[in-house]
Write a structure and sequence with these properties.
Elements lengths: L4 H35 L17 H29 L4 H11 L4 H28 L5 H39 L7 H6 L7 H14 L29 E2 H13 L3 H16 L2 H9 L14 E2 L16 H15 L8 H16 L19 H21 L5 H5 L4 H18 L18 H4 L7 H15 L18 H4 L13 H5 L9 E2 L3 H13 L5 H16 L9 H8 L16 E5 L2 E4 L6 H24 L2 E2 L2 E2 L2
Antiparallel strand pairs: 1-2, 3-4, 4-5, 6-7
Length: 643
């Protein structure tokens, strides 16, 4: 996101506003003291004179200063909200959350409380002088005291309305932006600024018992996208996606659930075996690839492994790259090795990617939308090819008939990989550089850093910087700028059966509802960023700074978990008599994303998303590993040794 000259001056405006407000408060004190001394006859010029009427000006001066200070305060809050919401500034988000908890309320007491106090004191003084002081000119005395009383009443009324208006503005801000931590139990009992291994263990135990890590794994080892989706769910999230399954299974592989990971990989291979004829058809006639439905499918019935008849954007080379990468990565764990049928499928997929020229093929990519040359898709294929080459060297697969029949050897794979690498280096740090599909910022590029590890250190630093500066919101991370999926008031705009349909051919139909800065904020990315910083901690790259960032983004992920709400008595009764739909689960769950509904960020329909669950648990695993490594490394933190 480009920073304009106007935006660069905003921090200076905040500092200037603070200084000006402090000056106004000083003038409020000085003018009040001066008028008070004059009105009470304490100054040299008013000794012996009745200048009580001057006291009537004090409430008006106080109100005037209060109005100016309130206006500046609202401007400071507005700038802070912009940096927190639009620029993803972590400090502003944290400061705003602290403000909502009353950390800065003393300033309001000083501002408005002083005016109320002054008005009350002056009111008492005026009434006392009116009834207790003897005067030779009752008319003049009555007029002066009455003016002071009226001034005090007017001052209190205006101050009250000013204070109410200030609170109303604060409520609007609070309504438009969520608390950073959705779950009070996590915030109060488990969230830490620094974690020890025992803290991580307690947190993981709590999340497991609360249901955050309850995975719905089918008997065949596949994972539906949403863990609680019904078989006939209109969203389609009860089906299995290749991409989601690879990410979920890889996370299991990382934390040691090897059996589950291998079962998922094997079942995915079983599905792609059923796609062999479809892959061969495209190899024989590459023009068929123009029709996504003719390509190998990447979304299917997870129970039966059958293809779905629904039109879908199956042109997703990233999903194929992910599968190749993960299957080859886990192949060394199989004692029986790879059978010929699986090796034939692997060979066909590699030839298929070569035939469609994956390095310049326009696919729908991670987000299954308009087709374009995407760095995130090319990078996933490059990662897959690298893993194939490694596996071939480890298990001498080049001599096996399925590979030799298709002419797959070291040189073939190397050339195929180099073609992708050259284009990838040309596109990065952009996601796409096409004239009509140009896109700089896309959170899918994070996966090229981890788990695929296919980009250089400098490229990874730039990608992280881009995502944090341009896509990070106050609770989650946007997929890309101007993303209209789950845009503001999405439930009202689209019926349930339409919300998750294929928009790849008519994206403009959905994009017309997009509002600047109101993109959905997803929950699958913060935990990945935490993992990335964790990798650097383990490799001793950055030390304490990386460790703090790892914690920061883990805490952001924890902040996205839904509250563990208890079903009320009335809800239960109405549910029994079918007057109110009961929720399936009220536990601590991992949403897919938060979107704006009536101006407030709330979880979308897809809860719990198993991909989010897997990423969060994996982030906890790497945090635990980092904490163990830091104990051994003894990283210095100031004058102390941490931990």
């Amino acid at each position: 996101m480009q920073t304009s000259i106007r935006e660069e001056k905003l921090p200076d405006e905040v500092i200037d506003a603070h200084r000006t407000r402090a000056d106004f408060l000083k003038w409020k004190l000085l003018i009040t003291a001066t008028l008070g001394a004059a009105g009470l006859g304490l100054s040299k010029d008013t000794v012996g004179k009745d200048s009580t009427a001057l006291l009537a000006l004090i409430p008006l001066v106080c109100v005037y200063v209060d109005l100016l200070c309130s206006n500046m305060n609202r401007r400071i809050i507005l700038i802070g909200q912009y940096f927190a919401q639009q620029r993803g500034n972590a400090y502003e988000s944290y400061a705003r959350a602290a403000s909502e908890r009353g950390w800065f309320s003393s300033e309001d007491y000083a501002l408005y409380g002083s005016t109320y106090t002054i008005c009350i004191i002056l009111f008492v003084v005026a009434v006392g002088k009116l009834y207790l002081t003897e005067s030779t000119d009752l008319t003049d005395s009555y007029f002066q005291e009455s003016a002071v009383i009226c001034g005090c009443i007017i001052g209190c009324i205006i101050t009250l309305f000013t204070q109410m208006d200030q609170r109303r503005a604060s409520c609007i801000i609070k309504r438009n932006t969520p608390d950073l931590i959705q779950n009070a139990d996590i915030q109060q009992r488990y969230l830490q600024e620094q974690y020890r291994n025992e803290d991580i263990a307690r947190l993981e135990t709590y999340l497991t018992e609360a249901g955050a890590f309850k995975f719905n794994c089918l008997e065949n080892g596949l994972f539906p996208a949403v863990g609680q989706a019904e078989k006939d769910d209109l969203s389609g999230y009860q089906h299995a996606w290749v991409r989601d399954n690879v990410h979920i299974a890889h996370a299991h592989f990382v934390w040691g659930a090897t059996h589950t990971a291998l079962k998922t990989a094997d079942t995915l291979m079983e599905f792609f075996v059923t796609q062999q004829s479809r892959i061969r058809q495209v190899i024989n006639d590459p023009s068929l690839a123009e029709n996504p439905m003719k390509r190998p499918h990447i979304r299917f019935n997870g129970h039966t492994l059958e293809m779905l008849e629904e039109k879908w954007s199956h042109a997703q080379n990233d999903a194929l790259g992910y599968f190749i990468w993960f299957y080859c990565k886990t192949a060394g764990q199989r004692a029986s090795g790879i059978d010929d049928s699986s090796l034939e499928t692997l060979a066909l997929l590699i030839v298929y990617l070569q035939v469609i020229s994956y390095w310049k093929d326009r696919d729908s990519g991670h987000w299954e939308e308009e087709r374009k040359m995407s760095a995130s898709s090319i990078g996933a294929v490059v990662a897959g090819l690298r893993q194939v080459r490694k596996l071939c060297l480890d298990q001498d697969l080049y001599r096996r008939q399925p590979f030799s029949n298709h002419g797959i050897n070291e040189q073939f794979l190397n050339n195929l990989e180099v073609k992708g690498t050259k284009v990838l280096d040309k596109i990065l740090p952009y996601e796409s550089i096409g004239s009509e599909t140009k896109r700089r910022y896309d959170a899918a590029l994070l996966f090229l850093i981890y788990p695929l590890e296919v980009v250089s250190h400098d490229q990874s630093v730039q990608i992280l910087t881009d995502v944090k500066s341009a896509l990070q919101g106050e609770i989650g991370i946007r997929r890309y700028l101007k993303d209209s999926y789950w845009c503001s008031n999405y439930r009202k705009l689209f019926q349930q059966g339409v919300r998750s349909t294929d928009f790849s051919d008519n994206l403009l139909q959905r994009d017309r509802y997009h509002q600047e800065g109101m993109e959905a904020q997803w929950c699958i990315f913060d935990s990945i960023i935490s993992c990335i910083h964790g990798m650097r901690v383990l490799h001793q790259q950055g030390g304490t700074e990386e460790w703090n960032e790892q914690i920061r983004y883990l805490n952001r992920s924890l902040g996205q978990l839904t509250p563990n709400k208890k079903t009320g008595f009335l809800d239960t009764i109405l549910g029994w008599i079918k007057l109110r739909k009961q929720k399936k689960d009220s536990g601590t769950l991992c949403p897919e994303a938060y979107f704006y509904e009536k101006g407030r960020l709330v979880p979308n329909d897809h809860v719990p998303l198993q991909w989010t669950q897997a990423n969060l648990k994996m982030a906890l695993y790497w945090l635990n590993q980092s904490a163990l490594a830091r104990k051994n490394i003894k990283v210095k933190r100031g004058d102390n040794v941490f931990p």
